[in-house]
Amino acid sequence: MRESSFIKKNLQRWKMIQQEPTEDPDEMAERFTGLLDDLAYAKTFYGHSKVTQYINGLAAGIFQRIYRNHKGESGRFRNFFYYQLPLLVRKHHRLFLFTFCYFLLFCIIGAFSAAHDETFVRGVLGDEYVNMTEQNISNGDPFGVYKDQNAFYMWLRIAYNNIQVSMLCFVMGIAFSAGTLWILLQNGIMLGSFQYFFFSKGLGWASVLVIWIHGTLEISSIIIAGTAGMIMGNSLLFPGTYTRKESLKRGALEGLKIIVALIPLFLVAAFLESYVTRHTAMPVYISIGILAISFVFIIGYFVIWPIRVQKMGYRLNIDGKLIKPVRA
Q: Of 50-64, 109-123, 241-255, which range is least confident?
């Protein structure tokens, strides 16, 4: 087609686009698509012509109107924590239950071993920690260890250590889940023997009111981190219809999303341990209140809410993106 014929054929439409701008999204999309077709044709046959520049200017104007207020997907952060993460948790609820039961089993084994072997606690927790705690007990301040350091420094150190443990628990899942199971075993035995030590000294209830102020979030997060490691490890063990490489990629991504989402919990747990746990003489109702809030949050967000989100019709597609329910 000659350039003059091309111009004559489309000039009226171009002028209408230029003189009568629209804010209707469908109309803008239709105009933009048509201009792109015209631009492609013009660049092919009249590459250095002024008409090519003219069409390009019209298309650029519409493009700017479409994206001038575009700031990325709205509510992306909210959707992740409100829908996507709970759906991911729901997908692996059975594995979460297995990880919890596995960890609890070794807590019981740790407590049982400590009850039948006086040297077991020292072997697990170390002579230095046991001697220090016994000295604090004799001084009438059994939980004095939480008061020794500057609160801010303690918060940073504990948060870093907990995040490091959770990342290690996740990364070790690459060893076909065996590495993660080993870390959970160690931490379970340590917690069981640690808790039994205080019960054996007649401080069981007091230790629950003090230590579990931060321990509820901290221990729950470690168990959840263990599940993230198991997700990655099981993706290697059971690739299903995917290649082992593709399955590992998907499992690692799902596990990493869970680990990243745990960081705020570790920060809060470290804050409680550093700034709140040190006040060992606080009223009992405050301790119980903090324990109850932490427990209700863990059960609510990681058990109940994922089930509700699924029942509302939200789903994750094969790539982990949110699919919203179709409303009638």
A: 50-64
**What's the residue count for the chain?**
328
**If you search the block for the tokens 């700017």, which residue do you land on?**
64
The H-or-E segment that residue 323 falls in is strand 322-323
Task: Tell me how far apart the 2 most distant CA atoms of the chain are, in Å.
Answer: 101
Task: Classify 238 as helix, strand or coil.
Answer: coil
Burial 103-115 (b: 16+ CB within 10 A, else e): beebbeebbebbe
Summarised one tens digit per residue, pLDDT across range 75-127 is 778 889 999 999 999 999 999 999 999 999 999 999 999 999 989 999 999 99
Please tell me the predicted confidence (pLDDT) of residue 328: 43
Confidence grade of residue 326 (pLDDT, cut at 50, 70, 90): low
140: left (phi over 0), alpha (psi -120 to 50) or beta: left
The tokens for 262 are: 């745990």
Q: How far is 108 from 113, CA to CA, in rounded Å?
A: 8
Identify whether the C-beta of residue 59 lies closer than 8 Å to the C-beta of residue 39.
yes
DSSP state of 328: -
Domain boundaries, the chain: 3-67, 78-323
Q: What is the mean pLDDT of residues 166-193?
A: 95
Say if CB 101 and CB 181 are below 8 A apart.
no
Q: What is the mean pLDDT of residues 293-320?
A: 93
**Mean pLDDT value of segment 27-55:** 81
Separation of alpha carbons 86 and 300, rounded Å: 10
Quick check: helix, strand or coil at residue 104? Answer: helix
Alpha helices in 201-319 (DSSP H): 204-237, 244-271, 284-299, 305-311
pLDDT-derived band at 67 (thresholds 50, 70, 90) equals low
Q: Is the dihedral of CA 132, 134, 140, 144 positive or negative?
A: positive
Q: How far is residue 112's CA from residue 164's CA, in Å, rounded to a whole number?
A: 28
Beta bridge partners, 315, equal: 323
